[in-house]
Amino acid sequence: MKRIYLDHNATTPVDPEVLDAMLPFLREAYGNASSVHALGQEARRAVEQARERVAELIHADSSEIVFTSGGTEADNHALRGVMMSARDKAADSRAGASPHLVTSAIEHPAVLNTAQMLEKRGQAVTYVPVDGQARVDADAVVRALRPETRLVSIMLANNEVGTLQPVEAIARQARERGVLVHSDAVQALGRVPVDVRALGVDLLSISSHKIYGPKGVGALFIRKGVRVAPLIHGGHQERRRRGGTENVAGIVGFGRACELSGRMRAESAAREAALRDRLEVAILERIPHARVNGHPRERLPNTLNVAFRFVEGESLLINLDFEGIAVSTGSACSSGDLKPSHVLVAMGIAVEEAHGSLRFSLGRGTTAEEIETTIEALVKVVERVRGMSPMYRDFLKGREAAAGAR
Fold first, then answer.
1. Is 258 part of the annotated catalytic residue set?
2. What is the tens place of the pLDDT at every residue in 182-222?
3. Domains of the chain in sequence order
4. I need a labelling partner for 348 at 20 to 30 A (CA). Which of 27, 137, 161, 319 fits?
5. CA angle 307, 308, 309 (to 5 degrees)
6. CB 21 within 8 A of CB 387
7. CB neighbours of residue 105 within 10 Å
8. Given 26, 326, 333, 391, which residue is catalytic?
9. What is the pLDDT of residues 267-323, one digit of tens each?
10. Rama region for 59: left / alpha / beta (φ>0; ψ in -120 to 50; rest)
């Protein structure tokens, strides 16, 4: 059975050109990038070249890029690093007020769980709500600012429903008030333009495995002059901002993935958007009681999140998997959690509909034929699963009763 992969927001396959770039640093060029001998210096040159490629993709200076183990570490470093620096500064000046963080209710768990950890340690956090399309109101973020606010963290694109956030407007107003701004751009990178200068952010998190690079490597952009305490202490690596021996092969792969993304993004995004729209139209035309979650226009080109009433999303996912089609019920980081998606709940979607939602996320390799196959399989699967659903049977009985009463 040929499998169809529509879960690119969870991870992407490694591009063959990325793998080819990595292999020499797993075989013969295995030196430690901190070593002074020839093998070490070869590794160092490769790391710095990759740093330049990452920086170029997001319009940063290479000195502003800190390599990490992925987006989660980058998010942790941004939030904890800024807030720890602010806390230490407040303690030194005996200012008294606890540093304050503003974020949104639909952030990735890497941000939300870090924010909750900071709260447990006595730091204040405000979670700004979103509207029914998962959009943050920039003015609401600004209204949440306090004199002691040190950081605002708002994602650039939501990983579950694809909604894009007004980060540029938020950053402009926050920085006017002397507040630093961080954005988790893990899902946005490679799908929409990401320009740290145009956005006006001070920190930005990105990850390799979302753009056809290897897992286990990412980066944090830290604007020059921004004070961020180290998250990992150790050696002098990453200009003493992140201790630990560099993952040279992974970093090289990340750099190559960024180079390819810069060249291919616009064309890939347009093609994926067209296929996504075809899938969306077919679902809404052929499957009753289905609706799209998220913003209809301000969204990622590859992402479609749909609520199917009267069924469980997990049941649909498993049945589609039997058909050879891989999709998701939400964030891969939350898989196995029986709670409804925190993103959908924050949007005001009923728990029953949140439980019946699926995320389809397309990629470079997705074909029109795969989308047509998915449509046909989905129509059959939804009908089959609804046929076993007590909720759907009760709905049909109620409709018949109402029709008979007329």
1. no
2. 999 999 999 999 999 999 999 999 999 999 999 999 999 99
3. 4-9+265-405 (3.90.1150.10), 16-261 (3.40.640.10)
4. 319
5. 110
6. no
7. 16
8. 333
9. 999 999 999 999 999 999 999 999 999 999 999 999 999 999 999 999 999 999 999
10. left
